[in-house]
């Protein structure tokens, strides 16, 4: 399995806002365009998206920077299309500078007016175009903008944001106090990394991208901060040999399931089978054996002789339902030490992560994947959930470096980081926010390792398979009421594509 080539697909890369700011002018110059030409192209791209709303009355909210210039350009195009459009500025009397001023004057010369904000303007429009704040925002949104943003959000009118939803930090995705919750966002030149994960992904709505015809020049100049991946980013698993057998496709040992928590490791084990692992054995607490094995005879289940089970395995999953008692601690230490001594790939999840925090001084991990959600990441990094979510890219990188692992930071826009390269998953939906979903992901990643994938590929592909399966399940039956086990059959379909 390998990544498909991203050549010419500029939407497969994410950038820090500083990279866009630093290189867009140079890229434009190389391609023979001015920054004002880029502004006109951006306005035209927004106008094209605006047409899909079929609005009779449009309200364009503008601030004082270049984002406002894009707003004036699109307002002029809407007016030229003989549709009613009103431009409302955070400061109607302020004279803009640079290209934004040129766009503002072009709007005025075309007979357009600029008014101050009022709630009546919100009530009268069919759609709102958000051109208030751009990518340069790194402080709390000022009061003069807060009223407009809050009113737009409260209106439930469709909102089309230009470049970033106003109030969102383009690098972290976090609202700077308050932020527009857009229906759609169209971003330019390079996708800003903050739009791909956590709160940023929520506020963006449906994300569109336009390179403004300088994508090739820009990508040669700028360094991407992350690669955006989905289930179609991979070539998939190789075809199986006709004379292969169950042992040819890996022996995965799933370790977990304490008294009363057998379901977690059962989900991991069955997910691994559905994702193509040849043989799956579960090592569990003696009181969990029956619960794990009941109804799934294909799982080999034992509570005895952990050493023998480890010797049998070609890779290991540890943590789901493991608990944190003496049995769990002893099992964890023995298993991870064995994996290190024999260079066995290991996936650590759930209770395994909590145990890792207290035992990491005993060993240095290698060929390891950790799969924390924000709460688990906060314990791994001795931080808080708020700090983790405030910059998920930074948190994933720090976790990868601190523990010498490939880190999967789960959540909306899951991030995969190996300490040197970052990936962010485009797929996924709230349907996956159910008990056991993470256990299924762990099993999928373990199955991919069992079938011969390297650690980084298994982590990235596993996250995308899991996310895509969640999307398909939601499309078939809705966001609510999904069971983690509903993913099994869909995962099987996807790994056979």
Report on this model:
With 497 residues, this protein is α/β, with parallel strands linked by helices. Helices cover 43% and strands 15% of the residues. The chain contains 19 helices and 19 strands. It has a 12-stranded mixed beta sheet, sandwiched between helices. β14, α12 and β15 form a beta-alpha-beta unit. α12 packs across α13 and α18 packs across α19. The protein is elongated. The mean pLDDT is 94.
Could you list some keywords that capture this structure?
497 residues, alpha/beta, elongated, 19 strands, twelve-stranded mixed sheet, 15% strand
Number of helices: 19
Distance between the termini: 13 Å
Principal-axes shape call = elongated
Beta-strand share of residues: 15-25%
- How are the strands of the biggest sheet laid out side by side? 8-1-10-19-18-17-16-15-14-11-12-13
Low-confidence stretches: none
**Average pLDDT figure:** 94
**Biggest sheet overview:** 12 strands, mixed
Q: Tell me which oligomeric state these chains represent.
A: single chain
**Helix content, binned percent:** 40-55%
Whole-angstrom Rg: 26 Å
**Number of strand segments:** 19
- Structural category is alpha/beta
């Amino acid at each position: 399995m390998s990544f498909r080539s991203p050549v010419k697909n500029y939407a497969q890369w994410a950038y820090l806002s500083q990279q866009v700011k630093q290189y867009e002018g140079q890229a434009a110059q190389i391609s023979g365009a001015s920054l004002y030409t880029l502004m006109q192209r951006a306005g035209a791209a927004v106008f094209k998206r605006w047409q899909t709303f079929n609005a009779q009355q449009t309200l364009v909210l503008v601030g004082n920077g270049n984002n406002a210039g894009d707003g004036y350009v699109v307002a002029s195009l809407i007016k030229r299309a003989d549709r009613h459009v009103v431009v409302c500025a955070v400061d109607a009397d302020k004279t803009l500078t640079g290209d934004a001023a040129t766009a503002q004057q072009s709007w005025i010369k075309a007979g357009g007016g600029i008014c101050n904000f009022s709630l009546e303007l919100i009530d009268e429009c069919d759609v709102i175009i958000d051109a208030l704040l751009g990518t340069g925002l790194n402080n709390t949104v000022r009061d003069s903008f807060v009223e407009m943003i809050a009113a737009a959000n409260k209106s439930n009118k469709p909102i089309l944001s230009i470049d970033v939803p106003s109030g969102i930090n383009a690098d972290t995705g976090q609202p700077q106090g308050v932020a527009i919750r857009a229906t759609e966002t169209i971003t330019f030149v390079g996708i800003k990394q903050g739009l791909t994960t956590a709160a940023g992904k929520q506020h963006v709505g449906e994300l569109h991208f336009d390179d403004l015809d300088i994508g090739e020049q820009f990508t040669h100049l700028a360094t991407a901060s992350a690669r955006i991946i989905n289930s179609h980013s991979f070539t998939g698993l190789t075809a199986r040999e006709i004379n292969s057998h169950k042992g040819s496709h890996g022996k995965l040992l799933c370790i977990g399931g304490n008294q009363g928590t057998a379901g977690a490791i059962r989900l991991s084990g069955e997910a691994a089978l559905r994702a193509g692992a040849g043989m799956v054995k579960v090592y569990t607490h003696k009181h969990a054996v029956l619960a794990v094995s009941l109804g799934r005879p294909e799982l080999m289940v034992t509570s005895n002789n952990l050493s023998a089970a480890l010797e049998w395995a070609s890779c290991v999953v540890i943590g789901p339902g493991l608990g944190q008692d003496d049995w769990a601690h002893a099992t964890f230490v023995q298993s991870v030490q064995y994996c290190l001594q024999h260079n066995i790939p290991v996936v650590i999840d759930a209770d395994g992560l909590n145990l890792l925090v207290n035992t990491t001084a005993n060993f240095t991990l290698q060929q390891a994947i950790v799969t924390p959600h924000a709460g688990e990441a906060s314990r791994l990094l001795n931080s808080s959930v708020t700090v983790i979510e405030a910059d998920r890219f930074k948190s994933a990188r720090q976790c990868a470096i601190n523990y010498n692992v490939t880190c999967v930071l789960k959540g909306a826009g899951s991030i995969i980081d190996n300490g040197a390269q970052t990936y962010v998953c485009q797929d996924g939906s709230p349907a996956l926010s159910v008990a056991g979903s993470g256990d299924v992901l762990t099993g999928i990643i373990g199955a991919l390792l069992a079938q011969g994938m390297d650690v980084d590929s298994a982590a990235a592909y596993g996250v995308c398979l899991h996310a895509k399966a969640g999307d398909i399940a939601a499309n078939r039956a809705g966001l609510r009421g999904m069971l983690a086990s509903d993913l099994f059959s869909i995962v099987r379909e996807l790994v056979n594509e």
